[in-house]
Amino acid sequence: MTKEQKRKYYKVRFLHNLKIMPFLAPSLIGVLLFYLVPYCVVIFYAFVDNPFTLEFVGFQNIIKVFRNESFRLAALNTAKFSLFAVPLAVVLALLLAILLDHKIPLASQFRTSFLSPMVVPVASVVLVFQVLFDYNGVANVVLKFFGVQQIDWLKSTYAPYVVLLLFLWKNLGYNMILFLGALGTIPKDSVEAALMDTSSSWKIFWHIKIRYLSPTILFVVIISLINSFKTFREVYLLTGNNPYGSIYILQHYMNNMFTNMDYQKLSAAALLMSIVLAGIIFALYKAENSFGKDMEE
């Protein structure tokens, strides 16, 4: 391409972008006002002493947050929960999607049962789990029937498992639908060609289907990771502002800092969480790209 052709190409591209800007403007303004500007304010507050004097203090707020025992507990609990919840949400959803893709009986009803949590209000879901796992709830009634001592589920070491069960019940349906859609896009001729070379279903799944599913897997992992960091709403409705120590997560810490009007620690904690999330997502993208290249080779 000559310089003149390049100049004409960029001119046409610029004019095209200029024409579509009026249509993008409402969305761009919304993102700017409700996302970018508040995030910049959070970054600013993380490096000043208070909202009034606005004196720059460097990394002091971040250091104070790191030294805070409540923050360390919340960060550890959030990391543990995400470490278990995200793989389970991805693997179980993929297995369910594969099962439905094989045209099992009552597949439509089965799919609907997993999608129903998406349309049920969170407060109603939490109410169901309170009925199930209250000290005098259904789970303890069943345990008592079999002669097992009652458990205070939400105020014991079992609390993370209740939250994990709630997380999976709420998110599996959406992940499953994403995988079902991805499985439907896999070219049948590629699978049929592979069947001629091998009769191993595992080899076909790993060498053919996973190749086409890898972008969807990445998307589902990211969505599940973000949702695992957003379980505060459910935990708050289940247990209140100060839950049992094992389910005290980062958003509890930030909510308490907001209640105490300690905006510096709140902003520092939010900044650290966003950096960690961004780092994990970047690593996932690099891993998916590397896997995709390896599969192509």
Question: How would you explain this protein's 3D organization?
Answer:
This protein has helices at 3-45, 60-67, 69-101, 107-119, 122-133, 138-145, 159-184, 188-197, 201-228, 232-239, 250-259, 263-296. The chain is mainly α and 297 residues long. The protein folds into two domains: 1-45; 61-296, MetI-like fold (Orthogonal Bundle), CATH 1.10.3720. The radius of gyration is 24 Å and the shape is flat. It starts with a helix and ends with a helix.
- Strand-pairing-aware structural class: mainly alpha
User: Which fold name corresponds to the CATH topology of the largest domain?
Assistant: MetI-like fold
Query: What is the straight-line distance between the termini?
Result: 30 Å
* pLDDT averaged over residues: 84
Instruction: Report the uncertain regions.
Output: none
According to DSSP, the number of beta strands is 0
Helix-strand blueprint:
Blueprint: H1 3-45, H2 60-67, H3 69-101, H4 107-119, H5 122-133, H6 138-145, H7 159-184, H8 188-197, H9 201-228, H10 232-239, H11 250-259, H12 263-296
Helix pairs in contact: 1-12, 2-12, 3-7, 3-9, 3-11, 4-7, 5-10, 7-9, 8-9, 9-12, 11-12
